[in-house]
Amino acid sequence: MPAINKEFDYLVPGDLRGQVRVGTQVRLVLNGRPVGGWITAVGVDPPAGLRLRPITKVRGWGPPAELVELAGWAAWRWAGRRATFLRTASPPVAVRSLPPPPGPVAPLVAPGGPADGLVADALSVAGGAGGPRPAVVRWPPASDPYPLVVEAASRALSIGGREPGGAGRRPTALIVGPDVAAARHLGLRLRRGGLPVAIVAHDRPGAAAGGEWARAAAGGCVVVGARAAAWAPAPDLALAVVLDEHDETLQEERAPTWHARDVVVERARRAGAPCLLVSPCPSLEARRAGTVLAPGRATERAGWPVVDVVDRRSDDPTIARSLISPRLAEAVASGARVVCMLNRTGRSRLSACAVCGDLARCEHCGAAVVADDDGRFRCTRCGTARPEVCASCGATRFKVLRPGVTRLREELEALAGEPVVELTGADSDTGDPVTARVVVGTEAVLHRVEFAEVVAYVDFDQELTAPRYRAAEQALALLVRGARLVGGRGGAGRDPAGRPGRLLVQTRIPDHVAIRAALHADPDRLAETEAGLRAALRFPPAAALALVSGPAAPAFAERAAAALAGSVDSAAVELLGPDDGAWLLRAPDHRALCDTLAAVARPPGRLRIEVNPPRI
């Protein structure tokens, strides 16, 4: 049970001994109450003088021994409970037996494409001398990852027949991505391509989900799934791949805030298997963990779309103006399939100078600033305050910009002379394709529409200046998502008619490094700038953070302060706060942070600890 973070000794009756192994799910009686549990060790010597209760039932297969051990590491790494991770690693329904593993697999190579030579280089780097180290593959957003995945996976599965002493091995490849539907689609493609596949990406539990989990536990196949698949069984792991490792969906929003990328990297390290982290715009965490590889410059540029930057600094913010620029109006009037994105919730408001039109931004970190009750601008990212004066022209008059999706839809309908569909995260996803020519919405629209000729970011400054330390990376990730709807400049896009598309970015910060990175198809531009900024501000990966909140947070903070005061490394770990009832622990690395969290006894009451929370 999550609230009981302990191990108990039980007796295995003779008729169940053949069914019990490390990871097996069982039923037992604890304090007079029937509960479920996992076997964490067998053949142990209990304390003297105890009469052990027997387990009452074997429920079925559970996580393999290596995942039970990994759950202990994850509980330390994200300050959580082992039961949380063991539950994720368990089958969705009871699994009583495993099918036989498939036979040997012959190597497959996908014909052509940017995977030529890159897979061999990546596997060489990831499995090189000195121990496994992830290879970070910078894969263009509009390029299909299938050629890379099918070649890498087939190489891994064919190890049993190629390596000395490999006869009889049933190696497994693990492929993890951020999206359930995309993972299921990739698994079906790999299966049609001739590879044995277990698809552990299901929206709800059922017999089919249990069968796929059992197929994965049997080994000798490609295990494909979304975030939770980082905990799927993969015996004799020979390859681990994380697709779109930059995607924030790979991190659990609820505490413990574990990240699938980090779990997969640790699994591969323990198994001695090569690990590939694939992304059009690798995160700073991935770059720090491994070696970056990329296809040729021409190939990478062909995999990015044309980016049309609309500079709106000359617009007069003192009067009500349309959200639609002349270039966006032209695209809508042309008859093209247009998708417009505008995030209206969960973002800081923007202020613009009423004289020169420049955005009011923090001089220290570049985030948007808001006016406080004292008549000063205050940065919601780093806390820097300054007078309400334009940094560009010295004016003191400002206009608050508050664009909205509904207003944009009304303007687009008047312009297009036809209905415009509005999509937000609150709208239910029926699975039916969106057929309207013009679609507008929040970030959700980029996940619900299959293709477009133009993807327009109506007010991209909301993303660039968001009060989060990952704002620039997340802004580039939105451009990547749009790039997949319109296709690359080197060939036909996603449009069924074969017409290539483009991204249209409306902004008052046209020289922002995230925009320049997409414009030049060069994500290294953003990485170089962000690495220096994060180091200066002591944000991850230059530091490790933990946000502590909840009714028990004050008591925990008091105990943490006492523990740090008596520690020889107290100067290395900071306790900051409180801020709106929350405290922040900051350390130079995760080892120092997690050791500190583990050393502080948990007070009674509700407590939430988020290690490197995604939205801070």
Can you walk through the features of this model?
The protein is an alpha/beta fold. Helix content is 30%, strand content 19%. The strands form 6 sheets. The protein has a 7-stranded parallel beta sheet, with helices on both faces. Strand 23 and strand 24 form a beta hairpin. The chain is globular, with a radius of gyration of 26 Å. The model has no long low-confidence stretch (mean pLDDT 89).
Instruction: State the helicity in percent bands.
Output: 25-40%
Shape annotation: globular
Strand content: 15-25%
- Structural category is alpha/beta
Catalogue the unreliable spans. none
* Total helical segments: 19
State the separation between the terminal residues, measured CA to CA.
30 Å
How would you state the average pLDDT, rounded?
Answer: 89
What attributes does this structure have?
30% helix, 616 residues, six-stranded parallel beta sheet, alpha/beta
